[in-house]
Write a structure and sequence with these properties.
By secondary structure, the chain is mainly α. It is 80% helix and 0% strand. The radius of gyration is 15 Å and the shape is elongated. It starts with a helix and ends with a helix.
C-alpha cells in the first residue's frame, strides 16, 4: 500500500498524520532489530522472527 493510500484511509478514520509517521518509523525499527543475527538466534525473538519472515 502506498503512503498516499495510507494517509487517505487514515484521514477517513480520523487518525492524525503524526500517528501514521510514528507507526511507520517504529515498524522499520522493529524489522531492523529482527534482522540482526543475535535476534535471529535468540529464543526470545525466534517466534517473532518467523512471523516477520513468514516461516511458520
Amino acid at each position: 500500500m502506498k503512503q498516499s493510500e495510507i494517509t487517505k484511509h487514515a484521514a477517513l478514520q480520523g487518525v492524525p498524520n503524526s500517528t501514521i509517521d510514528k507507526d511507520w518509523v517504529l515498524g522499520h525499527f522493529i524489522v531492523g532489530i529482527f534482522r540482526q543475527q543475535w535476534a535471529m538466534e535468540s529464543a526470545l525473538f525466534s517466534f517473532s522472527n518467523k512471523l516477520f519472515t513468514n516461516n511458520i
